[in-house]
Design brief:
The structure is a single chain. The protein is mainly α and 110 residues long. It is built from three helices and no strands. The chain is rod-shaped and about 90 Å long.
Length: 110
């Protein structure tokens, strides 16, 4: 009976460690920060339009880039939080696994 529990807890521990690595490595992916594209169209904007139009266009570009960067950051935060929760679950399973092995060894030796 204890042997089966050791096997089941060991498998669950292994799976939880794999999920923790999956979440943490997914959060560590490098992403390119969105910014206003510097193209000839943007430079022509400075020469051919008023300051109000220039400021509005720059603000609009910054807003869309900021929103995209916030989405990516929020996704990474969720992956990190899931990774930390999974690490906690893994540690609990590890303690249970060690206790089961100690119990099994103690039963065999007595």
């Amino acid at each position: 009976m204890v042997g089966w529990l050791i096997l089941i807890v060991g498998i669950l521990f292994f799976i939880s460690v794999m999920f923790a690595w999956f979440f943490l490595l997914g959060a560590l992916k490098v992403h390119i920060v969105k910014k206003i594209p510097l193209s000839s169209d943007l430079f022509n904007l400075f020469h051919n339009h008023s300051l109000v139009t220039i400021y509005y266009t720059l603000a609009k570009g910054n807003k869309s880039a900021r929103e995209e960067n916030i989405k990516v950051t929020n996704l990474k935060s969720k992956k990190l939080a899931n990774g930390y929760r999974t690490i906690i679950i893994s540690l609990i399973l590890l303690v249970i696994f060690i206790l089961l092995i100690a119990t099994y060894d103690w039963r065999i030796s007595n």
